[in-house]
Amino acid sequence: MAEPSLARLSALFFGFLLLLATYSWVPVLHSGFLSGTGVRKTLGPDPKPRVDHSSAKPHHPLDPLTVREIERVRTILLGHDPRFGSGSATIHSMALDEPDKTRVVQWKKGNRLPSRRAEVLALSGGQSHVIVVDLDSGRVLSDVVNPTSGYPILTMDDLTVASQVALQSIEFNRSVEARGVKLSDLVALPTFTGWYGPEEEGRRILKVQCFTSQDTPNYFMRPIEGLYATVDMDKLEVIKIVDKGPVSIPKAAGTEYRYSVLNKPVHMDRINPISIEQPDGPSFQVENGHLVKWANWVFHVKADHRSGMIISQATVRDSETGEPRSVMYKGFPSELFVPYMDPEELWYYKTYLDAGEIGLGPAAMPLVPFNDCPRNAYYIDGVFALPNGKSIVQPNMICLFERYAGDVSWRHSEILIPNADIRESRPKVTLVARMATSVGNYDYTFDWEFQTDGLIRVTVAASGMLMVKGTPYQNVDDLGDKENDSGPLISENVIGVVHDHFITFHLDMDVDGPTNNSLVKVHLEKQRVPNGKSPRKSYLKVKKYVAKTEKDAQIKLSLYDPYEFHIVNPNRKSRLGNPAGYRIIPGGNAASLLDHDDPPQTRAAFSNNQIWVTRYNRSEQFAGGVLVYQSHGDDTLQVWSDRDRSIENKDIVLWYTLGFHHIPCQEDYPVMPTVAASFELKPANFFESNPVIGVAPFLEKDLPVCTPFASS
Amino acid sequence: MAEPSLARLSALFFGFLLLLATYSWVPVLHSGFLSGTGVRKTLGPDPKPRVDHSSAKPHHPLDPLTVREIERVRTILLGHDPRFGSGSATIHSMALDEPDKTRVVQWKKGNRLPSRRAEVLALSGGQSHVIVVDLDSGRVLSDVVNPTSGYPILTMDDLTVASQVALQSIEFNRSVEARGVKLSDLVALPTFTGWYGPEEEGRRILKVQCFTSQDTPNYFMRPIEGLYATVDMDKLEVIKIVDKGPVSIPKAAGTEYRYSVLNKPVHMDRINPISIEQPDGPSFQVENGHLVKWANWVFHVKADHRSGMIISQATVRDSETGEPRSVMYKGFPSELFVPYMDPEELWYYKTYLDAGEIGLGPAAMPLVPFNDCPRNAYYIDGVFALPNGKSIVQPNMICLFERYAGDVSWRHSEILIPNADIRESRPKVTLVARMATSVGNYDYTFDWEFQTDGLIRVTVAASGMLMVKGTPYQNVDDLGDKENDSGPLISENVIGVVHDHFITFHLDMDVDGPTNNSLVKVHLEKQRVPNGKSPRKSYLKVKKYVAKTEKDAQIKLSLYDPYEFHIVNPNRKSRLGNPAGYRIIPGGNAASLLDHDDPPQTRAAFSNNQIWVTRYNRSEQFAGGVLVYQSHGDDTLQVWSDRDRSIENKDIVLWYTLGFHHIPCQEDYPVMPTVAASFELKPANFFESNPVIGVAPFLEKDLPVCTPFASS
């Protein structure tokens, strides 16, 4: 009886199945669970990688580890700690340990690469290890054990094991079957447990919750409420089963969303085929797989296990002089925080830190051509290390495309000048780098959009499935006073539990160089005009404050106390004497309202402010810490910032948290329409004047000639 | 010597030159000022209207007045008040006086139109008149004199006259010439004076400020600072000249922006031609010029003198039942407020209310094809009345187009189900209705974007020229402490004066019917968990409050006190018992910080809150009042709302103010890159489930086949 569920188990986890979904030379499976009849075969349309990764070499100091490099790190680790060979030590993440910034900045094409190093987060003998490996010398440079609280990012094995352990529990199986659920329909999903005090200390635990996939691929909408098992990952045993008794399982009807299966008439007139078309092909080049050159921008892009996608060394050409000018050294989503708002026993722990707990990279499935990205898109693969140190390629994980949405870059109509009508307008064409990750139920799409006027827009779009709660109620009227207990009723027996999303970006701004930036807070202060001085009684005056230390830069936004926030280089002045700057324009604002002494908020203390600026420190990349799983909050952005280091005229890092409160509604069922929010990095006295004033308009003769497919 | 300046004068004003810019059957010019040598000829690429407006008839109760109807109103008015014939009474605006909502809602295609009426704002004998004319009976139904403070919207004649009066002043001319400016280069621009207390009462005044157009079409960047003349528009005399002495006039170099003239190398790689392509043509129909049908949406769109563009009767088809369901009866930008932040004598009065002071319609020049709107756009003309009652057609004032930007409507990747990869993603295609208006220096683009999932996004994009101030300083270092006096130095001798933009939208939501809507404030309240009840210490709980009266709906947004705001129909419940609702999702938030007793803020009291809900009242359309020019603030949204009428389960109107603080920077010179902000109206338990779950993905075979123009 355990067989089918074991086999099913083997197919449960996003990280895990990444293995199968993708690449023909996938290494020998590292886990025994995959044998048997239930092994899933790749039937989908997933693409093959575009390049032969087996022989790929790095070309740029920031290029991610190649397949060969990953294999080499594995060999070095096997020599370092024999437990890696036996399988009792596991690699939880492996990424390029980037060279020092000064080395990278000085590096020029043609130079030898700085020595290649890897940083490995591993678990060996129940201890967390942060290991730095030098690939050139073949040596382990450092192996730090338990530098902070917390465990490394989870692996696919962790998830598999947790489910298996739970399903080996007769009591757990009995609880499932008592609800009339066949084990062959069971989806036993391990979820991250957070951290709630000393009693959870000293052991890695996962909580396994249950869904049924009977008659639907959308098991997320069919929770088996009132039951979970806590699994000790070291002892491989169930240490607690919570069974509050059966709750009605929501129906399967209405949960299907696959186009090939769904036969749902849509009352909507046909929309004629429409497309962004660029018959001459894209205008950008991707040099050696990672260095993107487009219009006046150059940047490095790569896939990343933890943050999904990293943009580095974004450099814009000065429109007047042609000089390449540094804007941002590195930008990426550093951590996410998704707390659910239900304190009861079966839900309180759901307070996810997705980047550090599971990683955005492994869950970034291949993008769907023509739908996730337009036809003119170019795709980039990701290369990752598996728990056993072997490598895996995730094809089409990132797309790059030029975007034209009918928007206007600048315009002016003028008719005040005799004998010369003026109707000037310029279309806005941008370049987008996109990655979409399905962290379990939720799908997050990350866009970095580059404008020719120097603006960078970062957009996070959320779609996918809600994490819902089973309820006995089928109608709001049945609920009485309980309506708002943890969220609204969004289908029969389904509550959409209220939750927040916070996405904190690491934005290592290097405006015109790495070492000399400052944060200027540009305050709009209301002034009262002295009586009789003017018919006006009040106005706003700009006052500028340069932040001296990190505590000056712990910033909560306020509608009624408005500031602009500029990262400037006080050593680089415009011809008028204004310091070259970039401004962060907040968007998608929500504040975390949880108490600071609440464990989830302590661990996610990076969401205590919307904006922070810290002194650059190469070890301070991940806002929730290096080791996030079951972390106590001793290695967060709040902790670093509270050191209150000087940040004036220094190498500094800007952090911005984009947030959504999410109160679900019926339209979010069974899949949510995309919700998007953006923030912007915008030049402010960086250029001497509007840098796109000389750009040409579109003329009809330059546009493509298109015919319907049918008539081609 | 007066000749050239008179001739030049005639070409000074946007409203005025509208006359010349457009249509061959433009009526006999109503003003003598246009004779002479300087009359501007239409050389530009402005299009001809697509339809023969001379014989057009209304087909829908909300269709704007036709050319014939405008002529008929003129005839009726000539009979009503002989001063209209003599030119001593002038028509300041004329628009359809829309039939009662119940009549419009009940009207079906094929029915006779409700009686056609026009509302005319006029000035006769120095008094403001609000006149309602019945076209069917040929009668004036009402003629209300001075219903509130304020004068009607300005006309092109007003602007012309003000300049002329100023230039007839020897003292004024002397001041100009003392600055070394040739009168032939002078641009004497009348600006709105605001209202600053009793001494300005009882007379219409305009203030004339000066620029030089020497060597540039961009005279806005060449202010002649320190000088203005106040003109009494009744007595046609200069009542005050302020001359603070010459200030350096900023240079012409660097101000040009016309592509045909500018020869500015741009350090940027070529971007290959790119376009939104739809070779089968658009999927929408425009019935009788105004009724748009697309996908699951039907709405009425029309050009409007005051608000530029009005969307009416937006109705979405229920995706499950096919039932057409009312969402919004009427939506439009009701008023703008643009206060400049400089209290000194030459600037304090610049606190514009553009919609009510000059109107967005006459300044909405023809859109530039391929640049203001993509190639797949369809254009709609505007028809307006001139001061003498004759009509004028503004071609291509509105465009409609389907937008595809590479964005995703919804997605989910799932690999947890054996033997079935799931990679579902749907492209987002929307329909945009766009109008762009050049209110003097600023260009505002208004987009109403309709999504198939029921969401309406309203975007305001600002571009054009800053209103700048001359200064003796050429470098920030010269300024010393004065740097922040009224704004930053953005070019030599040019200060970009700090200012705000507030755009207040009238959103007459009729969710599933006109009479039974309520505002529900959905509050996220922080709860502290009692000790020991849960390992969690805090969470957010949803509490709903139904606003009883208008004062419950005077809403200031707060990041740390979050609400959702739903307009619901409590009488229309989903199958789960949730009331059908639409949510307003704020965006582009800025609060006006001016004191409430400051005259500009009193006049623009609609910007005191970001959200308001009022009881529907057909006379309460314009948030700053019907008569806005020199208004005292006695007819604003604040005044109406303070009546505190009941708004529960009633016909209610939602008001939303989108705002920007604008601290200029060098990139804003000489033309600003577009800055955009949006708010959204989003279904919330309006549909039973995600309404676009059944929509088809894009398949390559459906996309167009395109070739470069050169190879076609």
From TrEMBL, chains A, B:
Residues 152-245 form the Copper amine oxidase N3-terminal domain. One of its GO terms (molecular function) is copper ion binding. It holds the Pfam family Cu_amine_oxidN3. Keywords: Copper, Disulfide bond, Metal-binding, Oxidoreductase, TPQ. Gene3D superfamilies: 3.10.450.40, Copper amine oxidase, catalytic domain. Contains 1 topaquinone per subunit. Its cofactor is Cu cation. It comes from the Eukaryota. Topaquinone (TPQ) is generated by copper-dependent autoxidation of a specific tyrosyl residue. The modification 2',4',5'-topaquinone is found at Y442. PANTHER family: AMINE OXIDASE [COPPER-CONTAINING] GAMMA 1-RELATED, COPPER AMINE OXIDASE. This is Amine oxidase. It comes from Raphanus sativus.
